[in-house]
Amino acid sequence: MKRVVITGAGTINPLGHDAASTFEAMKEGRSGIGALDIRDVDRLQIQIGGQVSGYDENAYFNRQQIALYDRFTQFTLLSARQAIEQAGLKFTGKLADRSGVVLGTSGGGLNTQDENYRVVYEEGKNRVHPFIVPKLMNNAAASHVSMEWNLRGPSFTVATACASSNHAMGQAFNMVRSGMAKVMVTGGSESMLCFGGIKAWEGLRVMSKDGCRPFSATRNGMVQGEGAGIFVFEEYEHAKARGADILCEVAGFAMSSDAADIVMPSKQGAARAIHGALKDGKIAKSKVGYINAHGTGTAANDKTECAAVADVFGAHADQLMISSTKSMHGHLIGGTGAVELFACIMALRKSVIAPTINYEEADPECALDVVPNEARDAEVDVVLSNAFAFGGLNAVLALRKV
Amino acid sequence: MSVQDKIIEIIAEQALLEPSDISLDDTLESLGVDSLALVESIFAIEEAFDISVPFNANDPTASDFDITSVKSIIRAVEKLVADQKT
């Protein structure tokens, strides 16, 4: 078994257009959630979200590229560029053949689909742009990353709703750990903030009209965000030999299925994934200092997640910190675990724990240290990142200081 | 069809029962209508009466829309129809 480390991290999300600005916002407890600026927003009941602001695709991509890159692909490519440049890797020869890209997304090119349906249904046109299919497909982002960086090994896209990124990073981790790959580019991306996307979520009636308040008794639902987080997972000896700056180690991973309900979370399923990640990484419970929660801000998730953490950790549950950064960037669905990994890296590298902002009132069913409203300075050696998807598919990663 | 009959029809469909099996004093729980079926029932009610029902699945008891029994749902819909049609 090889050891696996992270040597590059890139992102564009509602809090910032790179890792440094994202760390800064998380440290300050700044919110990236605001009024949605999208077409037909007046016909939506939910009019807030975590949009990537100040973003002009023309500043980064030419006309031909934009014809092929949906917004979720653009976010992926920009993040991958940051991550791979930070890692300082060139993919040629054998290394290219033994390096790949596994990404998570739930909606893929949903903006492209939405716009295209408008053209044929609303505007009644009978002809569409020739590249709709290669632009909207869920694997478009993974394919474009592999093309831009000559990653010629195992590459594909994982779709497990809100756990997509964590499942993707888990695959990348195991590929490097097993020796199947030397380097894997991994993470996830999502861009669902369009009329059809929000309208569909509205129907479930789990979205908040006024804000994301995880673990607070006053919480009333989730708020959606968009963006991407991309990482370079590299075999430890390979990274060490070339003198790479190692951000942290990926220490363990586990997944589980509730096999119970299509939307309601299960304490047992979540607990099995958390416990599994510890076991996989041979990590003692008492070593875990911080958990980046799934923490969606819905009534059901937050209490179930807290109960699962309490079950797994017993008395140590009261010693560790657990926060939901969704309170700041919103729920990035298939990209959420990737962006939330930045909070984990910040905890390990900078000894700063990102807060759960908008915390107003204690909920006895969420009686853990949720790092309310203000970031905290704390030394931690091991952190977990939880993701529990609709469909009952759970994926938990464990990271460790190197 | 009256508001009452239509709502009973909608709830019966979700509960996999005949409308005649449903009484006004039944609760959603006693009829086996779970949270997903409730959200679907509210959607069907909104479509049938062209109204907007204030309901957040995070806190079903938070709004004025009273879902304690079949009777309370009928009263609530009648009020929404009256309020929103004027």
TrEMBL record, chain A:
<protein>
    <recommendedName>
        <fullName>Nodulation protein E</fullName>
    </recommendedName>
</protein>
<dbReference type="InterPro" id="IPR016039">
    <property type="entry name" value="Thiolase-like"/>
</dbReference>
<keyword id="KW-0997">Cell inner membrane</keyword>
<dbReference type="Pfam" id="PF00109">
    <property type="entry name" value="ketoacyl-synt"/>
</dbReference>
<comment type="similarity">
    <text>Belongs to the thiolase-like superfamily. Beta-ketoacyl-ACP synthases family.</text>
</comment>
<keyword id="KW-1133">Transmembrane helix</keyword>
<dbReference type="InterPro" id="IPR014030">
    <property type="entry name" value="Ketoacyl_synth_N"/>
</dbReference>
<dbReference type="GO" id="GO:0004315">
    <property type="term" value="F:3-oxoacyl-[acyl-carrier-protein] synthase activity"/>
</dbReference>
<dbReference type="GO" id="GO:0005886">
    <property type="term" value="C:plasma membrane"/>
</dbReference>
<dbReference type="GO" id="GO:0006633">
    <property type="term" value="P:fatty acid biosynthetic process"/>
</dbReference>
<dbReference type="Pfam" id="PF02801">
    <property type="entry name" value="Ketoacyl-synt_C"/>
</dbReference>
<feature type="domain" description="Ketosynthase family 3 (KS3)">
    <location>
        <begin position="1"/>
        <end position="401"/>
    </location>
</feature>
<dbReference type="InterPro" id="IPR020841">
    <property type="entry name" value="PKS_Beta-ketoAc_synthase_dom"/>
</dbReference>
<keyword id="KW-1003">Cell membrane</keyword>
<dbReference type="InterPro" id="IPR014031">
    <property type="entry name" value="Ketoacyl_synth_C"/>
</dbReference>
<dbReference type="InterPro" id="IPR000794">
    <property type="entry name" value="Beta-ketoacyl_synthase"/>
</dbReference>
<keyword id="KW-0812">Transmembrane</keyword>
<dbReference type="InterPro" id="IPR018201">
    <property type="entry name" value="Ketoacyl_synth_AS"/>
</dbReference>
<comment type="function">
    <text>Proposed to synthesize NOD factor fatty acyl chain. Involved in the synthesis of a highly unsaturated fatty acid moiety, which forms part of a lipo-oligosaccharide that is responsible for host specificity.</text>
</comment>
<keyword id="KW-0472">Membrane</keyword>
<keyword id="KW-0536">Nodulation</keyword>
<keyword id="KW-0808">Transferase</keyword>
From TrEMBL, chain B:
<dbReference type="InterPro" id="IPR009081">
    <property type="entry name" value="PP-bd_ACP"/>
</dbReference>
<keyword id="KW-0596">Phosphopantetheine</keyword>
<dbReference type="InterPro" id="IPR006162">
    <property type="entry name" value="Ppantetheine_attach_site"/>
</dbReference>
<protein>
    <submittedName>
        <fullName>Acyl carrier protein</fullName>
    </submittedName>
</protein>
<dbReference type="Pfam" id="PF00550">
    <property type="entry name" value="PP-binding"/>
</dbReference>
<keyword id="KW-0597">Phosphoprotein</keyword>
<feature type="domain" description="Carrier">
    <location>
        <begin position="1"/>
        <end position="81"/>
    </location>
</feature>
<dbReference type="InterPro" id="IPR036736">
    <property type="entry name" value="ACP-like_sf"/>
</dbReference>
